[in-house]
């Protein structure tokens, strides 16, 4: 009996020691934040919305800082007609176009945050779920949610941390045009 208890105590101490050793030996690595400079000089009336969307992404991610007018990683344009869309040239770089007509139907902030999401590596996911930012216009005009889900935000953080491993994530960093489907809403027949 005594020897059995002794063995249990030894096992417990060894386990505690191993746990302590892991904690000390592998501290979380420090990661430097990446700055993405966006330019709103051609954003027309959407400059304020761009600043709001930048704050949303800064708060949702742990290693990104979107900063206004310090450079041209991301240029934001106001256009009229044709739909909003994004052109990503590489991860964190590109252009976003916000359609004034579309922004009169859908939440301008949701559109802006969604299009910036493409620049940050996210694909479309048109499943009608308003809790997802990348469901875009499929969630309808009543959906005004401008926030990425935890999964969407974490995916961006991982992309910029360089921890992507899957083929899909590898493609997320490349050049791509996202001609967004934010379907037009017909005026009610009256
Ligand atoms: Zn989209």
UniProtKB/TrEMBL annotation:
<keyword id="KW-0479">Metal-binding</keyword>
<keyword id="KW-0378">Hydrolase</keyword>
<dbReference type="Pfam" id="PF02031">
    <property type="entry name" value="Peptidase_M7"/>
</dbReference>
<dbReference type="GO" id="GO:0008237">
    <property type="term" value="F:metallopeptidase activity"/>
</dbReference>
<keyword id="KW-0482">Metalloprotease</keyword>
<keyword id="KW-0645">Protease</keyword>
<comment type="similarity">
    <text>Belongs to the peptidase M7 family.</text>
</comment>
<dbReference type="InterPro" id="IPR024079">
    <property type="entry name" value="MetalloPept_cat_dom_sf"/>
</dbReference>
<feature type="signal peptide">
    <location>
        <begin position="1"/>
        <end position="32"/>
    </location>
</feature>
<dbReference type="InterPro" id="IPR000013">
    <property type="entry name" value="Peptidase_M7"/>
</dbReference>
<protein>
    <recommendedName>
        <fullName>Extracellular small neutral protease</fullName>
        <ecNumber>3.4.24.77</ecNumber>
    </recommendedName>
</protein>
<keyword id="KW-0732">Signal</keyword>
